[in-house]
Amino acid sequence: MTETRALDLVDVRFEAGDDTGLIEGFAARFDEADSYGDVIERGAFAASLAEHRAAQTMPVMLWSHEPGDVIGRWEAIEETGEGLKVRGRLNLDVQRAREARSLVRSGAVTGLSIGFRVRQAAAGANGVRLVRAIELHEVSIVSLPAARRARVTSIRSAASAVEQEVRMDTSTPATAPDNKPASGTGSGDGDETALADLTKRIASIEEILARNEIRAQRPGATAKAATEGLETRAFTGFVRRGREALAADEVRALTVADDTAGGYLAPADFQTELLKNLVLISPVRQAARVMNTSSGSVILPKRTAAPTAGWVGELEDRPEATPAYGQVEIYVHEMAAYVDVSVKLLEDAAVNIASELSADLAEEFARLEGVAFLAGDGVKKPRGLMVHPDVASVANGNATTLQGDGLVSLMHALPAFYRNRGAWMMNAATIGAVRKLKNGTGDYLWRDSLADGNPPTLIGRPVIEAPDMDDVGSGTYPVLFGDVQSAYRIVDRVAVSILRDPYSQATKGLVRFHARRRTGGDVVKAEAVKKLHMAVS
């Protein structure tokens, strides 16, 4: 008789009566060998969690390890005696998050999984690998069948640039407590059962890796109608023919925007492509920390004065420590644009309309937000890094020529923590001038990248090209240096909302698509960056 033991991977629950999307559970457990012979030791996450706290970041909350499916944010992650305990909140403005909440509540999905890199490991007894230090990247809610979850405990993928291990934690040991096979009537039966299970695991992993490889190689503009999801088919049909021509299930698949009557949110594939374009075009978004919100503004608490202490004698009065605290409020603003597309083009099935709209809207929205994140005045738009009154400047010493000494002074005006995480930001014309600078021995301060994908460096720190920065000139601020991720926070409210207008331009044979996006940004740590001030001639 074959004996089986089924245990939930994690304890996942919502607060009773709570409809805010709060979720908590264990994403990993300590001192239990998985089927690969890995044991995560207590304290393995400590260093990584400390780094996240210092940088004011948090591992992201994903659906099934898909980078484009951010479904909320983790609010607390800590190590306990049992394992890695997480607590977070689903963003119920996101369709995928609402689906995840429904699946968890029904008990259909009870899995949490971590994406990480192993920093330190050692060989243990009987071939076990003891994992002692982990760099934690993300924690996902996963939706694999119960039988597969009980067996596939770890998936290792080298498809990404950063080799990452995606682990499905399980509370079921690889063997029974007496170190005998958990099933089978004898050693021979146990070996055959173990071999069969291993074969199934390998086949499952190969299937997952094959799907990931296909996704990685697929061009962004390729249309595969046969494999499109319902939301993608519905959105494409809405773009080409309007809501009236959609089937009932396709109409239900469209998500009405919360604060735009008659608008529809683009499907997940469309939003992912759009965000990819924004990262490439808007350098501040690439360097800053980005978060999502379901409100019109975000309030972040901030310490404005540190506590003070002093040396005292045995019986002397102790001084009072008087820290001060304030807050930074980031408002979410709206930008909008419209695109006219000919009816003839919409009727052409060979044209991927979603891809074309993605490229056009990404270019326009990126142009707007790129300028605002640097030079926005905060009126109906984000407040920019270069105009914030708390961002200090360092003098260059010359009105028309960049000085190497000025750049060195700018770099060392920052505390070591921010300096060691810092990056330079300047436009193409300024980069051209900086590349000509030399030190006293005739060596260039600029260093080109030695490998594709790595940025060039200036005095050992990477350089980000920002086309909206000032040119070198009298009284301008052409160079920014510092830890932009700590200094600047971007808040996204609505990714993209599309409204189809087939009437106003009908006499011209055009359909007008109105698009809107809500985002905000502001400086939260002005001390993390400095700007170079050219002298006034």
Task: Characterize the structure shown.
The protein has 537 residues and is an alpha+beta fold. It folds into 2 domains: 22-175 and 201-210, no CATH class; 263-306 and 324-537, Major capsid protein gp5 fold (2-Layer Sandwich), CATH 3.30.2400.10. Helices cover 27% and strands 29% of the residues. It contains 14 helices and 23 strands. The chain has helices at 46-55, 95-106, 146-151, 187-217, 230-241, 248-253, 268-281, 283-287, 343-347, 353-375, 404-411, 416-419, 428-434, 484-487, and strands at 22-29, 38-40, 60-63, 70-79, 83-90, 111-123, 129-142, 154-157, 164-168, 264-265, 289-292, 297-305, 324-331, 333-342, 393-395, 423-426, 446-447, 457-458, 461-465, 479-482, 488-501, 510-523, 529-533. The strands form 4 sheets. Strands 1, 2, 3, 4, 5, 6, 7, 8 and 9 form a 9-stranded mixed sheet that branches. Strands 15-23-20-16-19-18-17 form a 7-stranded mixed sheet. Strands 10, 11, 14, 21 and 22 form a 5-stranded mixed sheet that branches. The model is unreliable at 1-18, 145-187 and 214-227 (pLDDT under 50).
